[in-house]
Structures are given as structure tokens and as C-alpha cells.
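Reopening this one. Same input as before:
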Amino acid sequence: MADPRDPRPLTGEPLSLDLLNTRWAGTPVNDLLADLDGYRTWLSSVGLAERCPADPAGLEAVREAREALAALVGAAEREQPAPLDGLNRVLAHGRLRHRLGERGPQRSVEVDDPHRLAAWLAADNYLDLLDQGAHRIKACAHPNCILHFFDTSQNGRRRWCSMALCGNRAKAARHYEKATR
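Same output, byte for byte:
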């Protein structure tokens, strides 16, 4: 559940896209990760406040992960080769450990530095989304929106980050255009 202090227009997307959405439209562009307070808010909103230290090292690590994710998503949108190095650098700081416990399979994340946990989890989540369908990672169709979402609609034709926000803006603009003709 999103932290009530979280000012972003879209929350609740998968972790990697939620991290991308810490920047949203404005003049200048709004950035929740501009300072430690915003980082604390983001950690709280995504349920990581108890697991990840909210300090400058953690903030720098998630900014690095966000840049790597933005580069990958942007390249996919432009149908360009994917810049793999950035995300692979983030992923190199951790691993998923599998073992068999008394109650069955167990998985745990191990990172070389606890400050990198949130960044690693976001990078790993991006790989999960790619496995589910890279074509479902989408940018909002509204020309003034910079948010991203994972399209879980049955037909895969979702266009807006939020129908209440960008979808209604687009409909209102079309209505206004027809009315003024």
C-alpha cells in the first residue's frame, strides 16, 4: 500500500516500473528520489522500509538502477539495441539463493552490500517482467506523460498509465477538438 506521503500520480506498479515512475511529468520533471526523504517515502510505498536502509548509499544505488532501467525501457520503445551493461552492473551485486528447507523450496536474496538491496530487487523484478512479456511493459500514450506500466489487460491493449488521469485528459481533448470544429 502506498505511503500517504507519496505524491506520485501512479503507484502500485511492479517494483522496477514503480522505480521508473519516481520521475513524473512537470516543469521541471518531478523526482521523488531527489533527496533522502523522497527515498524513504518510496521505500515505504513499495514495502521495503523495514528491509532496506534509507541512507545516501541506498539512494545512490536505486538511482543507478533507475537509470539502467530507463535506458533499457527507452531503447525498447525506440526499437534500438538494449544497453545491457547498466542493469547487469546492478545485478552483479546480488543473487537469488535457492535451497530446500524442511517445508520445501526456499529462496532468499543475498547482496554484497545491504544498501544495494532495493536496487537489486528492482533490477531482478525487471527480468521477471521480461519473462512475463516484454511487450507488456509500456509507456503511457499521453504525450505529456512519462510514466510506465505493466499491461495486465487480457487483450494487452491498455494505453494509459491511468484512465482517471491520462485517459480522461485524452478523451477531454478529443471532445474539445470536436466541439470547436
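So the earlier flakiness isn't reproducible anymore. For the record, The chain is about 45% helix and 15% strand.
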